[in-house]
Every structure is written in structure tokens, then in C-alpha cells.
């Protein structure tokens, strides 16, 4: 969330972790629908603009885990 509360970053990862970029592009394209739905569900004065970002933390964690396993096997 930005300091002025006008934009918020939403980290997303599709099930299976594949095609992150495609998922982010689709969510960005239809972000107006997401905001519209959220505005009906949330009782807040201002709904921030949503910026969707691919969450690569699981991939990073997997790489670290593989490196640790490789190091243990040596």
C-alpha cells in the first residue's frame, strides 16, 4: 500500500506456479472488475488502484532448498 493509500500491490501466484506473467497480465486487464467487486464488499472511503505483481518467493525458496540438499549430499 502506498503512503497516500491510492495504490496497493497485490502479489499473486497461480496454482501450480506456472504462467505467472500471463496471470498477472489477465488480472491487470480485468482489474476494474476486481475493484468493482471489492468496492461492493468493503466499506472503505477510497479503494486503492490495484497493481498485480507475480510472487516469485516460492521459486526462490525452492532454489534455496535445492542448494541446501545438494550441499548436504556432498
TrEMBL record:
Matches recorded under SUPFAM superfamilies: Ribosome-binding factor A, RbfA
A family per Pfam: RBFA
Cellular-component GO terms for this entry: cytosol
GO BP terms: rRNA processing
InterPro entries in alphabetical order: KH_dom-like_a/b, RbfA, RbfA_dom_sf
GO molecular function: ribosomal small subunit binding
PANTHER family membership: RIBOSOME-BINDING FACTOR A, CHLOROPLASTIC-RELATED
This protein's name: Ribosome-binding factor A
Amino acid at each position: 500500500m502506498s503512503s497516500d493509500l491510492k495504490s496497493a500491490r497485490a502479489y499473486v501466484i497461480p496454482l501450480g506456479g506456472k504462467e505467472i506473467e500471463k496471470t498477472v497480465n489477465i488480472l491487470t486487464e480485468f482489474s476494474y472488475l476486481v475493484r468493482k467487486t471489492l468496492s461492493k464488499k468493503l466499506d472503505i472511503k477510497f479503494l486503492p488502484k490495484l497493481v498485480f505483481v507475480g510472487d516469485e518467493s516460492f521459486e526462490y525458496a525452492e532454489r534455496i532448498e535445492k542448494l541446501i540438499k545438494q550441499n548436504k549430499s556432498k
